[in-house]
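User: Please fill in residues for this 87-position structure.
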């Protein structure tokens, strides 16, 4: 039985080179990242569906809010630039 184990180990050493092991590790890491991304996607989709319950009116309000936030950010940037150049 021990001879069989030694032979199996030798076969594994011949089969799994350092490059192969490295590739398998990268694959496992990518699979983990994929699973995490899929869970995050499910969470975002669930959150989105909860917003869709509010209907079209909420979408209009959310778009207006987003537009106003962007406008505020732009004006804040302009003020910051103005004050940097007036010093």
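Assistant: Residues filled in for all 87 positions:
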């Amino acid at each position: 039985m021990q001879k069989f184990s030694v032979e199996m180990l030798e076969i594994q050493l011949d089969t799994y080179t350092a490059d192969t092991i490295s590739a398998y590790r990268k694959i496992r890491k990518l699979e983990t990242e994929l699973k995490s991304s899929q869970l995050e996607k499910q969470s975002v989709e669930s959150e989105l569906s909860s917003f869709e319950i509010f209907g079209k009116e909420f979408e209009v309000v959310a778009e207006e809010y987003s537009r106003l936030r962007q406008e505020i950010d732009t004006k804040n940037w302009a003020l910051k630039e103005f004050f940097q150049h007036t010093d």
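For context: The chain has a mean pLDDT of 88.
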